[in-house]
Design a protein that fits this description.
By secondary structure, the protein is mostly helical. The chain is about 60% helix and about 5% strand. The chain is built from 6 helices and 2 strands. Strands 1-2 form a two-stranded parallel ribbon. It is globular, with a radius of gyration of 14 Å.
C-alpha cells in the first residue's frame, strides 16, 4: 500500500477545500435524516475504530468520515447500499481530481469494499487497513 502520507495529505486537501467543520464523538448520526437534522451545527463524526485504517492517523480518518457525510447531505443520498455506492463514487471522483487515480482507487477499495464487507459478513472489517490492501490487490472481499 502506498505511504499513508499521500492519503492523509489528499484527505486534508479535500476537507479544507470544502471548509468542512466537524467534531468527533463516540456516536454520530447514522441516517440521512439524522444528518440533516444535525446540519445546523458542526457535523459530528464517529470517532471509534480509527486506529487500523488506510490513514496514518485517526484525525485523517475522521476527516474522511466528515467529507463522506457531507456528500450524503449535499446530494440527499441515504445510507442504503445504493446511497453508499453513490457517495463513494462521488468522493473518489473528487479525490481523483485533487490527488490522482491511485489515491482515489485506494479510497474506493476502503469505502465500497467496507460496504460490501458489511453486506457479506454483517459487520465492518475490524482491520480496515489489511482489508483494504487485500481488496486493492485482489479485487476480492474477504472477512477481516
Amino acid at each position: 500500500m502506498p505511504d499513508t502520507y499521500a492519503l492523509d495529505h489528499a484527505m486534508r486537501k479535500m476537507t479544507r477545500s470544502q471548509k468542512i467543520r466537524y467534531t468527533v464523538a463516540d456516536y454520530a448520526p447514522e441516517t440521512l435524516e439524522d444528518l440533516l437534522r444535525a446540519a445546523t451545527s458542526p457535523l459530528v463524526v464517529y470517532g471509534l475504530y480509527s486506529e487500523k485504517t488506510i490513514f496514518g492517523a485517526p484525525c485523517f480518518n475522521w476527516a474522511q468520515r466528515a467529507h463522506h457525510d457531507t456528500v450524503h447531505m449535499q446530494n440527499a443520498w441515504d445510507t442504503s447500499v445504493a446511497g453508499e455506492y453513490r457517495v463513494a463514487r462521488r468522493q473518489c471522483l473528487e479525490l481523483e481530481r485533487l490527488s490522482g487515480t491511485t489515491i482515489a482507487n485506494i479510497l474506493w477499495c476502503d469505502l465500497w469494499g467496507q460496504t460490501q464487507h458489511m453486506g457479506a459478513y454483517g459487520m465492518f472489517p475490524t482491520d480496515q487497513r489489511a482489508f483494504t490492501w487485500h481488496y486493492y490487490k485482489t479485487g476480492q472481499i474477504a472477512q477481516f
